[in-house]
Design brief:
Elements: H1 2-10, H2 16-31, E1 38-43, H3 49-57, E2 62-68, H4 71-80, E3 87-91, E4 104-109, H5 118-128, E5 129-140, H6 145-167, H7 188-197, E6 200-210, H8 217-221, H9 227-230, E7 236-237, E8 245-254
Parallel strand pairs: 1-2, 1-4, 2-3, 4-5
Antiparallel strand pairs: 5-8, 6-7, 6-8
């Protein structure tokens, strides 16, 4: 349960994690703007942040089914959406969804593909969405300067510092470090190819959480640069600024047979 609470807390405040989640919420809602409603599936819903946002901003438009492989996340989501009539929650893995074929008009997978077998997961998303239905997926951007520096320099430096601190007998709670994440992010070109291979036609792509800064400089800058909450549209790009995105979203349609 502590993990679920920590994940939810990361959406708040003014740090890099909050900015990332806020920017991602914006692009998801923007991508759904033209969708009139229907049956919606949120795969990997976590503690229900996106579900809660849709209930608040699109009341009555969607009947929402949300799933996550973590029971603690589903419990936290249930608490967050308590009293809502149009939400069903269940424990499930994205690689083996317990739903019939062609069950949903919209399928969302936010922050999930990086931590799973993406090819198998996409086949399941394509299976459960209806012909002509909308699929939205996000992915960390492995080619952006932020991720390149974070994964290739910053995290290894923290691990090295932690090992040195251990040799110097620094107390465990005060040591630096970075856990092995298990992230398997793929580039936009490859993800779009994978979508096509399972019968999904990419229609739009937008990079979000734009930042030219790298850790830990971004943490310092976020104390003063706070316009992203008032103007989230400035944190996304489909054009020349997209190289600064720390993540990206692809919108695709299932081909009609």
């Amino acid at each position: 349960m502590a993990e679920a609470l920590g994940y939810a807390a990361a959406h708040d405040g003014w740090g890099p994690s909050a900015r990332y989640f806020y920017s991602r919420l914006y692009v998801v809602q923007d991508s759904l703007r033209a969708c009139p409603g229907g049956e919606l599936l949120d795969v990997g819903c976590g503690p229900g942040m996106l579900v809660r946002r849709l209930l608040d901003t699109r009341p009555g438009d969607f009947h929402i089914t949300a799933c996550d492989q973590s029971r603690a996340m589903i419990k936290a989501a249930a608490d967050r959406v308590a009293g809502a009539d149009d939400v069903d929650l269940t424990v499930a893995r994205i690689e083996d969804l317990p739903f019939p074929d062609e069950s949903f008009d919209v399928v969302l997978a936010m922050g999930v593909l990086e931590y799973t077998d993406a090819a198998r997961a996409l086949r399941e998303l394509a299976r459960v969405v209806r012909p002509g239905g909308l699929v939205l997926v996000t992915m960390l951007n492995p080619h952006g300067p932020y991720r390149l520096f974070e994964w290739g320099v910053f995290w290894p430096a923290l691990r090295l510092l932690g090992r040195l601190e251990r040799l110097l007998h620094v107390r465990t709670g005060r040591r630096h470090g970075a856990a092995v994440s298990g992230i398997r992010a793929v580039a936009p070109v490859r993800l779009r190819r994978m979508l096509r291979e399972v019968g999904l036609r990419p229609e739009d792509m937008v990079h979000y959480d734009l930042t030219p800064l790298v850790p830990p400089l971004d943490r310092v800058a976020r104390r003063w640069a706070r316009n992203w909450r008032a103007h989230p549209e400035r944190t996304v790009s489909r054009g020349t600024r997209r190289w600064m995105g720390t993540g990206y979203l692809v919108a695709a349609r299932r081909l009609c047979q």
